[in-house]
TrEMBL record:
Entry protein name: BTB domain-containing protein
SUPFAM superfamilies in UniProt: POZ domain
Pfam families linked to this entry: BTB (PF00651)
Stored CDD domains: BTB_POZ_ZBTB_KLHL-like (cd18186)
Annotated ranges, domain BTB: 22-99
UniProt cross-references to Gene3D superfamilies, sorted A to Z: Potassium Channel Kv1.1, Chain A
PANTHER family: BTB DOMAIN-CONTAINING PROTEIN-RELATED, BTB_POZ DOMAIN PROTEIN
Signal peptide: none
Length: 309
């Protein structure tokens, strides 16, 4: 079964690359793809409507022209590179975004040419990490400041919404979530946040929820960035979404801990019976009259002088 699926996928890629048997052309700026209605129309509600009898004029002529964006501020138009990846997805059920470097300092983390489906190999430096092991809080030692394709994944999600390709939205959402784990402190994340709120319908909360939760998870850093402040002030509805998300987010129950042993706990003094915060650096005395019936006793610092401790 796996071999047959692989051979079928290879055949689809060959006809996409060669244009053989094509009956529809999709153009966006300088990008042009000769595609097949049986593929794109069955996976996209937009192209299905364009190509049906009596549909859009472009669909009847066999050429659909999508308006190309001049830059990331050209809302409503499409990035030709994103359109190319969208066509790839229609044929391959996946897309591979090229790594974008935002600063020269990040040249050391551009070793990979394409993303892996596994979270562990998303960055070579973090090979072996599972999704559950990724840091939920920022860590200056492991958090790069590059794009990690957050902008492109936001564009792909928007294309999925615009052209009725729900499976593309699902794929882009997962990729954006992984990318934001590491690129939350990049200028590209600020650009991606603006794209999320300007290229998707207000009732589409998928990518918006991920973006706001990421922002809140690192609010102590991000809210001090001038570019983030400017972005937040310019986006209608973002402030309300942040307040709403903050109410639903689970509180951080980790709390402070000892810098030496990494623990913190509440102990009950066996003399005054009051609770005190302690850690494993301050255990119960192991020998002497301070153990009764094999049970360790613990005295708070206020009571210890009375017992010669």
């Amino acid at each position: 079964m796996a071999l047959g699926r692989a051979q079928s996928d290879e055949a689809l890629l060959r006809v996409l690359q060669s244009g053989a048997y094509s009956d529809l052309t999709i153009k966006c700026g300088s990008f042009e793809a000769k595609v097949h209605k049986v593929i794109v129309c069955t996976r996209s509600a937009y192209f299905a409507a364009a190509c049906k009898p009596g549909g859009f004029a472009e669909g009847q002529t066999g050429t659909v022209v999508l308006k190309a964006a001049r830059d990331d501020n050209d809302i409503g138009a499409d990035d030709p590179e994103a359109v190319k990846l969208m066509i790839d997805f229609l044929y391959k059920h996946d897309y591979t975004a090229t790594r974008v470097v935002v600063t020269e300092d990040e040249a050391h983390i551009t070793a990979y040419a394409k993303e892996s489906q596994t979270a562990g190999s998303f960055f070579p430096a973090f090979h072996g990490l599972s999704g559950s092991q990724w840091p939920s809080k920022h860590n200056d030692k492991v958090t790069p400041t590059g794009d990690c394709n957050t902008v492109m994944h936001a564009k792909m999600y928007a294309l999925g919404s615009k052209y009725g390709i729900h499976s593309l939205q699902d794929a882009a959402l997962g990729k954006f979530m992984k990318a934001a784990t590491y690129a939350w402190n990049s200028e590209a994340f600020v650009v991606a946040l603006r794209l999320v709120y300007t290229t998707t319908p207000e009732n589409d909360k998928g990518l918006r929820n991920v973006a706001t939760q990421t922002l809140l998870r690192h609010e102590d850093v991000l809210l001090r960035k001038g570019s983030m402040e400017k972005c937040m002030r310019s986006i209608d509805g973002l402030a309300y979404d942040l307040l709403k998300a903050k109410q639903t987010m689970k509180p951080d129950t980790n709390g402070p801990c000892c810098n030496t042993c990494g623990t913190a706990n509440v102990k009950l003094c066996c003399n005054c019976h009051e609770q005190s915060v302690s850690c494993n650096c301050d255990p119960a005395p192991p020998v002497g009259p301070f153990r009764f019936d094999g049970v360790s006793r613990w005295w708070c610092r206020r009571c210890r002088p009375s017992f010669g401790l």
